[in-house]
């Protein structure tokens, strides 16, 4: 009887992780954190070491997205420290955590350390033939080469590798992210029509899978490119949609507000421009 209860609780803990991931994918980060904290509590009570480790890993990721970096690292480390997980699952867990730790180091400006973690994660995922995690590592290496190291050719090559895997596996959420990242590289290279092509592909995916966070980001980036091309009416329409979505989901919107300020200034509406620019710097 006790064993049956423990098994049911363990399955309940796994379902909580799934709910947490679903909320994460839809940009509902605070709900994601709540589900994952409950999952962690359940798995600790049942002694499910695997569930406990993955709860720490997933919880750390959601905390990272809401800028609670120290807490994220704490959970990542706890995931690695849990004993009793061996073989393929241990490698899969380590690969995911190394990717996540790489992101923290990247954010903190430790670029060499970030690349080391990303390549370590890539080596593990290649060894165990986990293509989903390979794509994550390729994506992260693309991001750091673009955003931090200025190596745009290398960035594009990594992002294309990630996209190829994600399209083939029909991992739609991640595919949308890859389109967005590739658009960003083309924008940085001054290839604005190519940038629009990939941002619009990402926007279509984000609408299809109802990923509001990615949808808002795409409207923002498309609006920026239209402004650079001198198509201010289209730019304004896209930034207004970005602001609407980001406000709905409670996401950081200073960049969008600043873009709206610039666009209103270009239209000669200085009162609106000043209001947006003041809001952006608060």
TrEMBL record:
SMART domains linked to this entry: TPR (SM00028)
Highest taxon in the source lineage: Eukaryota
The TPR repeat ranges on this chain: 53-86, 95-128, 176-209, 216-249
Pfam families: TPR_12
UniProt xrefs under SUPFAM superfamilies: TPR-like
InterPro entries: TPR-like_helical_dom_sf, TPR_rpt
Alphabetized UniProt keyword annotations: TPR repeat
Gene3D superfamilies according to UniProt: Tetratricopeptide repeat domain (1.25.40.10)
Protein name: Uncharacterized protein
